[in-house]
Amino acid sequence: MSSVSQDKASSTNLSEQDRDTVDRLQLFARGVVEGVTGGRHRSPFRGSSVEFKEHREYVHGDELRTIDWKLYGKSDRLFIRQYEDETNLRATIVLDQSGSMKYGGKKADGLTKHEYAVRLAACMSMLLLSQQDAVGLSTVDTDVQQNLPPRSNMGHMNLLLRVLASSRPGGETSLGVALQRVASKVKRRGMLILISDCFDAIESLSKSLAYFRHQGHDVILFQVWDQDELEFPFRNRTEFRSLENASKHLLDPGALRKAYLKRVEEFREQLETETSKLRIDLVTCTTNEPCGEVMKRLVAKRQRGKAKKK
Fold first, then answer.
1. I want to staple 108 with a disulfide (CB 3.0 to 4.6 A). Which of 127, 213, 279, 287 is the partner?
2. Rounded alpha-carbon distances, angstroms, from residue 84 to 41, 61, 136, 212
3. C-alpha 309: how far from chain center
4. Could you report the per-residue pLDDT of 178-227, keeping only the tens digit for each?
């Protein structure tokens, strides 16, 4: 991964610590994926790779070298050893550039959710490409604005970083609808990585994510928050302006703080419930957290899930 252009990497403002952290991580697909070359992830296609899967009875035309002769000696019947082919992963990163992603509070030193999401996307790209996995990118608001098909060569990283650096948050959007349009561009099952604040109707978002899961995709969701959105630290009479339309309201924060925090908690619980049902990895993060630490939490979470299955 050290071969990634440092000039391009710095254009996303990744810290040296974040790059060093990501360099030490390894991420595996949880399920079966369709890749392009031999690699480290399970494939739906039979092959002659390293991991034994199961036996099946010999039929005329099978290669003799695949017969399990030891089993034949015990059973006096011919069986073929089948293996689980390994493959490189095809991942698509979906970056939300809706208007609500423009927000940046004081605790993040003015860093917006969108700028933070760009850094997370760069980290994920670097991690996957360092594993020789193929990475694509879709930026979405009301529609898919930019779409880069998955590629696995390190030169592709420069193009990914250029598109990420040029991404700009826009106005109103429906994340659920945008994901449906992404789905039409993803031809093979692999990994879908959504980076968003998820400010959309949970039902619509859940329906679109369910489609990807039903198609066999491994889905990861990074939900990005600004600390202000979780704590609502406003005390004095404040003008609140929508970042997705022209509406604005002058309000007393004290009068609505309790109701606001309750709605936020309900929203978070509902999203967690839906992603859990769909077996989607939900990683919640705030814009004042180092991206490398968020990546470490994701990898640790998936390792714990793998250990439970065993």
1. 287
2. 10, 21, 25, 23
3. 21
4. 999 999 988 788 999 999 999 989 999 999 999 999 999 999 999 999 99
With residue 182 as reference, give the H or E element that holds it. Answer: helix 175-183
Position 7 scores a pLDDT of: 40
In the chain, what is the straight-line distance between the N-terminal and C-terminal CA atoms, in Å?
Answer: 31
Q: Which two tokens stand for residue 285?
A: 């993060």
Domain 6-34+88-309: top CATH class: alpha beta
**Encoded amino acid at 218, one letter:** D
Name the DSSP letter for residue 96. Answer: E
Strand partners, 247: none
In the chain, the amino acid numbered 95 is L
Q: How many Å apart are CA 307 and CA 301, to the nearest integer?
A: 10
In the structure, what pLDDT confidence band is assigned to residue 6 with cuts at 50, 70 and 90?
A: very low
Strand stretches in 58-115, DSSP E: 79-87, 90-96
Each domain of the chain, given as residue ranges in start order, spans: 6-34+88-309, 42-85
Q: Measuring CA to CA, how many Å separate 299 from each of 38, 103, 152?
A: 22, 27, 20
Q: Are 137 and 95 in contact (CB under 8 A)?
A: yes
